[in-house]
Write a structure and sequence with these properties.
Rossmann fold, 2 domains, 249 residues, 8 strands, alpha/beta, 18% strand, eight-stranded mixed beta sheet
Length: 249
């Protein structure tokens, strides 16, 4: 596993073959993806306000950050995919750098065009993270989830957060939550997405209010030639990697 920095962006690279940039969900990090499970030359990095990255939070820089990481590893083009907030970053990259995106995976798009998170709940999460109270943050995140789903999400979050010092990570995640709450991924929505020309797969699930199936359907309908694919229900990184590999072909 190769570790490197692009400015303040903390990056990892693993594997060989076709270039693939992976963009993690909000309050997760580059550790969300099991790079070794992807049969590609994979690069993941901590987005602003996450993990080991020190760049200040600025959602409007997400597309440019992808381009900067690609420049650093010498890639003119690559496949790009992201989950939730990462899907929003992938959309921004595809719109801002159309000639550099070979293929696009939009996994659980959670902006339509803005976040579906409840503002009051988002602020309670942010306050818990700002106080480095990760147990409280996990409790707030799990509110309204069925017990098995809450358990699975809690395990995935704790596994990711264990890679970082709570006192350093907490304020970053608080800033990321607050900055993305009212941010718009693309305007006008959804017609702006019609400018995307990359081969695109949209992975969606039903009965998830933060990542509505209707939004995944809307995104797939707006992007020319995009496919809408039911997402694997598992949070297992290897299962996610297998599905991404299948839709990328």
């Amino acid at each position: 596993m190769q570790r490197f920095r692009v400015g303040g962006l903390a990056c990892v690279r693993h594997g060989s073959g076709r270039p693939l940039v992976l963009l993690h969900p909000i309050v997760f990090s580059k550790a969300y993806f099991a790079l070794e499970a992807f049969p590609f030359d994979g690069v993941a990095f901590d987005q602003r306000g996450h993990g080991e990255t020190t760049e200040p939070v600025d959602p409007d820089r997400m597309g440019a950050d992808v381009a900067a990481v690609m420049d650093a590893v010498g890639w003119k083009t690559a496949s790009v995919g992201g989950t939730s907030l990462g899907a929003a970053a992938a959309i921004r990259f595809a719109l801002e750098f159309p000639g550099r995106c070979d293929a696009l995976v939009l996994d659980l798009p959670g902006f339509g065009p803005r976040s579906f998170r409840d503002p009051a709940k988002t602020e309670r999460m942010a306050a818990a993270f700002a106080a480095a109270d990760f147990a409280l943050a996990e409790t707030v995140i799990a509110e309204g989830m069925a017990a098995p789903r809450a358990k699975a999400w809690g395990e995935a979050l704790r596994k990711d957060w264990a890679n970082y010092a709570p006192s350093e990570l907490g304020p970053k995640l608080a800033s990321a939550l607050r900055a993305s709450a009212g941010w718009s991924v693309a305007e006008p929505w959804p017609s702006a997405l019609s400018a995307i020309r990359a081969r695109t797969a949209v992975l969606g699930v039903k009965a998830d209010p933060l990542h509505p199936w209707e939004t995944a359907s809307q995104v797939a309908a707006a992007i020319p030639g995009a496919r809408l694919v039911p997402r694997v229900s598992s949070l297992d990184p290897a299962a996610i990697a297998r599905q991404w590999s299948e839709v990328l072909g």
